[in-house]
Design a protein that fits this description.
The chain is about 0% helix and about 50% strand. By secondary structure, it is mostly beta strands. The protein has a 5-stranded mixed sheet with strand order 6-12-11-8-9, with no helix packed on it. The model has no long low-confidence stretch (mean pLDDT about 85).
Length: about 200
């Protein structure tokens, strides 16, 4: 006879003084009492018992993991998932790895995470990995890619000319300031005026 956690109970016939118990994969993790009993022809019974503990070796199951595939710098990306474990989920983590960025975030006990993408980060492909861990340290992962683009125009300000009056045959110097959330890659100047 075998008894265990959550009312688990089983009884088997043993024809000799040994028995192999193949523990079911869905058997609750915990301590089990195994009792051997012998009965004689007069109905007298003798018993002995031991306790054994089972260990959780099953990885959590990530049934689904999805989220934002395309996002912009300065925007957000949201991820949702569904996960389960035979004993219980202990922790969930989101790892984001991309150009110049590698961070792991505690996703708590929920089933979603919103990533606030920095406006000054680099555009490119970011691998977003969900890791689900149970109390025994078993874990499962799933990964998706979010393509992050730079959709912010550079800012040009303070355009000025020296001298302020243009005289044919003389040089004029134009100056300005330019900035961008990531970097200014190149600059051009266009001059338009009366036809000549």
């Amino acid at each position: 006879e075998i008894t265990g956690p959550f009312g688990w109970h089983a009884m088997f016939d043993a024809t000799d003084s040994s028995f192999n118990w193949f523990i079911p994969m869905d058997a609750p993790v915990g301590t089990y009492t195994i009792m051997a009993a012998a009965t004689d022809l007069a109905g007298n019974m003798g018993t002995d018992s031991i306790t054994v503990s089972t260990t959780d070796v099953q990885d959590p199951v990530i049934a689904s993991f999805s989220g934002t595939q395309y996002a912009n710098l300065g925007g957000t990306a949201t991820y949702t998932w569904s996960a389960s474990d035979n004993v219980g989920i202990d922790s969930q983590w989101i790892k984001i790895n991309g150009p110049g960025y590698d961070v792991t975030i505690d996703a708590g006990s929920g089933s979603s995470y919103t990533w606030n993408i920095g406006s000054d980060w680099q555009a490119g492909d970011y691998a977003v990995t969900l890791k689900v861990v149970d109390a025994a340290g078993n874990f499962s992962t799933d990964t998706m890619i979010t393509h992050v683009s730079d959709a912010t125009d550079p800012v040009v300000t303070g355009m000025s000319a020296a001298p302020g009056t243009i005289i044919p045959g003389a040089a004029v110097t134009f100056t300005w300031s330019s900035s961008d959330n990531v970097a200014v890659s190149y600059q051009t100047i266009q001059i338009s005026g009366p036809s000549f």
